[in-house]
UniProtKB/TrEMBL annotation:
High-level lineage: Bacteria, Pseudomonadati, Bacteroidota, Chitinophagia, Chitinophagales
Residue intervals of the Helicase C-terminal domain: 797-948
TM spans (from-to): none
Protein name, as recorded: ATP-dependent helicase
CDD domains from the UniProt entry: DEXQc_arch_SWI2_SNF2, SF2_C_SNF
Amino acid sequence: MLPLKDLEEQLLHREEPRGPAAAVADGRKLLVLKQYRFHKKLELQLFSAPVTREGKFKNPLTPIDPLEAVLQTEDPDELRFYAAVSRFQNNPTAPAVPADFAALQTVWENAAGFTICVHDKDFSESIVAGSVKPITTGTGLHDLALLVAQTDGFYDIRPQLTLEGAAVDLRTVHLLYGYFLRQGDRLFLPQSLQLLKALRFFLQYPAGMRLRPDDFGAFQKTILAKLEEQLSVVYTYARPLPRAEGDALGLYTPPERLIYLSELGSYVLINPVMKYGDSEVPLRSRKAVYATGAKGELYQLQRDDDAETNFLAMLLQQHPHFGEQLGEGLPYFYLHRRRFLDEGWFLEAFDRWRSEGVGVLGFAALKGNKYNARRPEVSVRLRSGINWFNALIGVRYGKQKASLAQVQRAVRNRSKYVTLDDGSLGLLPEDWVRQFDAWFAAAEPEGEELQVPRAAFKTLRELFAEETWDDDVRRSVHLYESTLLRSGAIPGYALPEGLQATLRPYQQRGYDWLRFLDEQNLGGCLADDMGLGKTVQAIALLLAQREAGRDEPDLVVVPTSLLFNWEAELRRFAPGLRVGTLYGTTRVPLLKNMERYDVVLTTYGTLLTDRHWLEQQSFNIVLLDEAQQIKNPSSQRYEAVNRLKARVRFTLTGTPVENGTLDLYAQLSFSSPGLLGSPRAFRALFSVPIDQFKNSRRAAELQQRVAPFILRRTKAEVASELPEKTELVLHCPMGAGQRKAYDACEAEFRAFLEGSADEEVERNTLHVLRGLTRLRQICNSPLLLGGEHVGADASSKLDVLLEQLESIVPGHKVLVFSQFVSMLTLIKTALGQRGIGYAWLTGSTRDRGAAVKAFQEDASVRVFLISLKAGGTGLNLTEADYVFLVDPWWNPAVENQAIDRAYRIGQEKHVIATRLICPDTIEEKILQLQETKRSLSGELVKSDGAFVPSFSRSEWLQLLAH
């Protein structure tokens, strides 16, 4: 290892004390003014000097490097002082350089507390203790007055210098180092370069100058007028004119305040001016104001000191930089153009200037300036339309106008500026950006109007002050608030005379609600639980349209699986309606003659196919059943239904929300356009906070907004108005492939019957049983035939059942019965693919108790798949309140036993049992037999379900007849 001393030398840096710190400790700090040795330019030097007991300086003087001193201080004033001193070291420049003069003013403030001395070169060319002489710095060198007098036909211009309040003969002072005025042992620094230049001139001519009248005019215009901006020019022959006398002579008018805007490089100059009559006086000048009388006499008017002081005070309040600029001796203030224009500072400044009556000139001439200097003035007038509240919005910037489309573009692009009709840019303050953002989120622009949907009446008060509403708007909003927002306030309506149904009380209330919305041209969503009769309430509404004399047809859009049911229900409840079904290959005549029908039924698939035809038709009502079919706002179905033209729109659904709030948005944005705003706004305001972050406050806000336009009653809520159990039939029309398979099997079975004698049919009971079973299996699914090739695998029953289950299982438990275990297997596979939990019970299930317990107690198990034979007896399944019978059993008593698995002792819920039936099949015929000939259908089966050969051949053929 190297010796320790060597390591110390090589590794450690020894910090030496620096100049200023040592100087403060050992003596006085000196600022020495001197001339460069080879020319007369000013040089500044800093020293620390030890002092004697008598306070005199003594050698040696230690130089202080100002740049080193900068590193020793954190005081900003001292930093500026040392930087200013450094400009006058080894850097000789002409005395009139503005930057040097500004630095010298900083030095003169002496923030670092140096003793200011002058160098006596006669004592020594070098700076030593004996060659530096302390000197006193004076204050008050602000003005050099020029007195203009008329003498013997000439004009005399005589300088008058005042130092610290006392008049001084120019012959007793002189300039030192080109900058300072020396009077004895006192030094003065002129306030401005203009004052310095005038002093330099008149020190050469201390008695002044005399001009002939012919020369004086040009001299006055070219020189005196400009000197007046910074120096006092006094015309001694002008008589001071008191205010009152000036008013009497008509020579005095109240001053105007003006601001001239101009540019200097990257800066905007703000030059305040007072205008007295025809004379403009820079606010920060000493210029006197003169007026000429009727006989040519010259008067000096009094400047309005109070008005000028207030004007200056106002400007100083407008930017913190302006106060700092006061000390720079400039006649103007200045801001960087980016700060002046781009940051919108000028808008607030112009507001203040206009409110104070200050005129502004030169704004439009600023290079690259496209801005309008006014704030927007927005006018709003709200009037009532058929389906909308129309807000006429006017946006003006002085004489210029911004179109609503340009404002929307600016808000959408998050721009602070909007393009005006003359091409200039108007600033959109942040508060107006927020206001317009709220308007555009809640309304659609149409020309210069915003269309606010009537459904959004609750937000109308938030969007527009009531004083902007016309009388019709006020009446409509008050009506909606007094009915839709108050429980039980909807008026009652008489049912249509042609309705072939008796409505339960809750159904009557639903019909009243639909009628009220319809009368107000408002749509809505009827979202009752499945089985509560949404269809009959809707049919009552459609029938009321015809009895009210509506001319345009109503359009009802349904899933394909429900088309047959709607046809049947319309025939049953409203036989007087002219109903046309837009479906299949014979649609063209109906499309061309829709006006012949009261109600047009179609499917979602057909709507997409015929959308271009349907978009051209005007409908009275468009009603969507199972409206969750349009729950995706980006889907073709959603787009297609929203392009339909209708006076009013309604939706029916048992599950308004399946996966999230966007489901609700899609349905209500159809039935009540504009209620929930744009998809983007809805996602930001409701969907993300509620679905992702479970924000209860936003959920409550959404509920309050949609409450007037969605009516939902659960079975539990109307339980007192329901029978103990309700039995429904849901028709499941076959698709083409399934129908073809069924027709082929039916034809084969009919051929057997037609080709056999009565005795042969009675002997071949098993053959008859096989034929009937194959037909029933195809009604469920052709796949149930197993190895038999029928050329089809689609199942309308499976499709309908799954549609119903997906709607029901989020809030209910369901029993599904089938005679065929193979059908239950198909259902089980489909449930697994959809993530729906199920339990399973067939004749081969070993632990029946475990299956029952899972269904009764496990919340994730929503469906119980049960073979009819295994589940017909001995089960108590009170958790279920929906029952589906996939394939009708010949004996109604057996079906009733299955339904009673749910409706048993301990059941507190209303039970809805639904039979799935394929129309135009053996199932429909058996159902008809059950209803009309129960005694006969009872002869078909024994208690164990075997057929009894009691039907003749002709009776079997009649059963197969279409």
